[in-house]
Amino acid sequence: xxxxxxxxxxxSGGAHSSGSGSGSSSTSAGSSSGSSSPGTRRETKHGxxxxxxxxxxxxxxxxxxxMVIALLGVWASVAVVWFDLVDYEEVLAKAKDFRYNLSEVxxxxxxxxxxxxxGDFDVDDAKVLLGLKERAAAEPTRPAGEPPAQVQEERxxxxxxxxxxIEDELKEHIQTLLHETVLREHGKDLLQEDKEPAREQQVxxxxxxxxxxxxxxxxxxxxxxxxxxxxxSYHGEQTAxxxxxxxxxxxxxxxxxxxxxxxxxxxxxxxxxxxxERIEISDNTVEESRIIAEEVSIPPAGEHQEVPPVKNKKxxxxxxxxxxxxxxxxxxxxxxKRGKIEEAVNAFEELVRKYPQSxxxxxxxxxxxxxxxxxxxxxxxxxGAIETYQEVASLPDVPADLVKLSLKRxxxxxxxxxxxxxxxxxxxxxxxLFPSDTSLKNDLGVGYLLIGDNNNAKKIYEEVLxxxxxxxxxxxxxxxxxxxxxxxxxxxxxxKEGIESGDPGTDDxxxxxxxxxxMQRAGNKEAYKWYxxxxxxxxxxxxxxxxxxxxxxxxxxxxxxxxxxGYTDLVKSLERNWKLIRDEGLAVMDKTKGLFLPEDENLRExxxxxxxxxxxxxxxxxxxxxxxxxxxxxxxxFPETTGCRxxxxxxxxxxxxxxxxxxxGPTNCRLRMHLGLVIPKEGCRIRCANETRTWEEGKVLxxxxxxxxxxWQDASSFRLIFIVDVWHPELTPQQRRTLPAI
Length: 742
Description:
alpha+beta, 8-stranded antiparallel sheet, 5-stranded antiparallel sheet, 47% helix, disordered N terminus
């Protein structure tokens, strides 16, 4: 059959009418030459007079029938296409999406083309129509739903050139479309499928029990946890490349009795659980100043190495006993996969009751509880899932793969609840059970970092690198630890080589952030190349704006005016009362109680810089406010600052000879106000992005500290300012209530 175009209108209709015309032409040729073509036989069998007298048609009679038949074919095709009697495009698109599971896609539309007598149009029927499989010799009778009478008549009655040809045309058209489109794009797959029909159902059933969720929407629930915590994230340095819109950001569960976690204001490397799917950078960026960032000569993310494809072995999750109840396990698992969580929970609970020794049944119960916790946003249900995962690993005769899956998931969910030390114990057990699995050791290293134990984490990664020296994940984390220990030069090659490896977990904004920062401090001009690469890979909003806890779409510019912020009353109050604020700050400085604490975030190249904090993460420091009671009372009426859980209110004193490295704040959700209190006439300046300014006593400067900024104090006396963080003015009230603290 000649190829036919599937263009709506002229293409499809024209091709079809051409087919009808050619069929009729053969009939005509057969009449004159005596050929035994099908068209000739049909014409011979049904031609003649109604009274049975045999005889040929006259020229005009034959031409009339020819035109009737041809027009029927043409207009039937046009009607089918233009009036969408059969939506071929939808059929083909769905067939492609579902890997040609035509039995589900075409039900109700193409049932009349059932070729094997099973009552519907499925893959076997498609193969018959495509010529890949022979039609069964005898169609079995069907007690539970016979084919429509119209179809049965088509099978039994002799073919006629009357309106029944419309159905023939439709069938031929569908066959052509399927044959040309499906075989053209995936013919090899269908032929391979035809060679191995016996394995299809077996593989499908096995997939239900391997623990592989193709669209596992629960695998990254860590995305929405308290304090933006989940597996392997640095506070203030989390990758911004993921697709999560903070316009809808909120806390899934309340974290209960979490381990203590320290949060830093700037970019000191403090390791926290990751937030793999929640950060999106602002679309608004500033011009890239005058820095011409050259391309770094490493491949794009995901294409770093050409590694021969390795087939992942399907985990073996069934022991001998579970294989005897495989059908029941599959039935329960199908409920879970289809989102019928409550029914699945009941099904697996019943299996556990009937077969308490079944590891796979108990693992299914744990997964259902896990899913149900997400659905109900329930810590209590999630605690039950964590306990059930533990029960799985404690049963006798549990396949090793199932033990590993259960304990890994248990560790992840413990981290989600903030139970870092419990998670660490689970990871330690995993490493004891599977000592040769370096990926588990890498996870254990993360576990130590999550509780702030950098020394043990460092030992773990040294052990991994001794065994697998090219492990990119271990390299970036080892480089991070070295940088946290202020071993700047040593950290650079580990961070760089780790990113270049392209290993999973290395293309992360945190590592671009710290690599660039280390290079800046080492005087390496390639720092901005890496910032540019991080920006191109979606980790940073721009070369300048490198914060990692961001809300999408907020206005982004380094410097702001009071009018642009909308916080006019606050600014006026600060400037009107600046002497009061100054005097209370100076009084605290004069005391010997050590209320001003040295900056401890490793941001200084040199010098002396101390701070006295009144509010942090939206929480008032009652003891500190006793030292500045009037200032605190003044601020109480401005919730945009006292309620800013991603900011601080503090005095900042900087002594001569101080230089603060270029750095960025952790989030684009705040703006920072600097009120000048004691400002030397010369020598003090601040750069934000590519513009440098100076302070004035009694005046407020406003900038976005998610942009790179740098400070110099080259005066002959101290500089004192008052820092007031406020919510970004474009954040909604809902976002201000629900954004986790930083």
